[in-house]
Amino acid sequence: MTPTFSKLAMAAFAFGSLVATSGLAEAGHFHGGGGGGSHSSGGSFHGSVHFSGGGGHYAGGAHFSAHYSRPAFHSYGWGVRGGVHVGYGYYPRYYSPYWYGAGYGYYGTEYVGSYYPVQGQPVAAYAPAAFAPRPELPRIGLGVFGGGVSVQTADGNSKPDSSDVGVLGRIRLTPGLILEGELGKTTMDKDLRVDRRLGGSLLYEFGAYNHLAPYVVAGLGVEQADVQGTYSTTQDYAELGIGLRYAFGPHFAIAADIRAGSRASVSNDSNENTLSGTARSIAPPTSDSGNSEDYTRGRVSAIVYF
C-alpha cells in the first residue's frame, strides 16, 4: 500500500469515527478491503446521519473510497472518490379535531353539561392547543309564565290562593346577568279580585352555558288591584327569590322559581265602604292603614331566545 493511499485510508477512518461518535448519528458503517497478489488493493468508507426533532426529519450521508492498482508489468495507479449528501424533510403532525359535546365541560372549567359544542382547531405537534372562542349567548328572550300566589296580611289573616299568568321579556347583560320585565295578572276567588302587575327583575344564572343552571332573582314593581269592580288601589311591591333553569339549547329554556315579597297600598282610587263582606276580606289594605300584604308566589316559565 502506498503512502498516499495510507493517508487517505486514515482520513476516511477518522471521519467515520467522528460520525460514529456524534450525538446526532443513528447509523453508520465502514468498509475496507484489499486485494491479494500484485494487482490492486482498496478501501472505502460509508457513513450516514439521521436525526429528528421539532416535528421534522433530517438525514445525511457521506461516502469515500480510495484504491490503487498495480498492473503486472506497468506503472502504479490510484484514485479517490467521495461524496456528501444532506437531506431534510418536514412532516407536520396534527391532533385530530375533537368536540366538547353535550354533557361535558367547557375549556376544562367548572361548567358541565354545556349545550354549546366547541371544536378544537388542528395544531402542529408540541404547539400549545388553540380553541375556538366561546360563542355568545343569545341576548333577547320572550316568554310566558304561569303559577300561583299565596297572600298573608300583616294582621295574620290568610287570603284565598290565587292563580298567576303573564308574559315576560329578557335582555342578557352579561353571560350570567339578565334583566327581566313582566306583565302579569293575578286572579283571586273566581275573579272577585284581579291584580294587574308591571314589574322588573334582575336575575343571575350560575353557569349560564350549562344545560341546568340555578339562579337568584330580585324584583320590584307596581300593581293595580281591583275588587268587585267597585274598589281599586295601587300597590308597590318588592321580592326576592331563587330558581332553576333548564336549557334545551341556546334558544329555548324553561325555568321554575319561587319568590317571597311584600306589597303595600300607596293610593286608594275609590271608597272601600262600598265593598260587600266577602269582597272586603280579600281587598288590599288601604294606604292610610299602614298594613301590608306578604305573599309567596311560584312561577314556571318557557322562554325563547333570539
Account of the protein in words:
The chain has 306 residues and is mainly beta. The chain has 3 domains: 3-86, no CATH class; 92-135, no CATH class; 140-305, Porin (Beta Barrel), CATH 2.40.160.20. The protein has 2 helices and 14 strands. The model is unreliable at 18-40, 53-59, 71-80 and 84-112 (pLDDT under 50).
Show the helix and strand layout.
Blueprint (H helix, E strand, L loop, with lengths): L2 H19 L5 E7 L6 E14 L2 E14 L7 E14 L8 E2 L17 E2 L20 E14 L4 E15 L4 E12 L4 E13 L6 E16 L3 E19 L2 E17 L8 H6 L10 E13 L1
Antiparallel strand pairs: 1-2, 2-3, 3-4, 5-6, 7-8, 7-14, 8-9, 9-10, 10-11, 11-12, 12-13, 13-14
Residues in helix, %: under 10%
The H-and-E topology, N to C, reads as HEEEEEEEEEEEEEHE
Distance between the termini: 92 Å
How many extended strands?
14
Provide mean pLDDT, rounded: 74
**Which residues form runs of ≥5 with pLDDT under 50?**
18-40, 53-59, 71-80, 84-112
Q: Percent of residues in beta strands?
A: over 45%
Strand order of the largest sheet: 7-8-9-10-11-12-13-14
Number of separate helices? 2
Q: What is the CATH architecture assignment of the largest domain?
A: Beta Barrel
SS content category = mainly beta
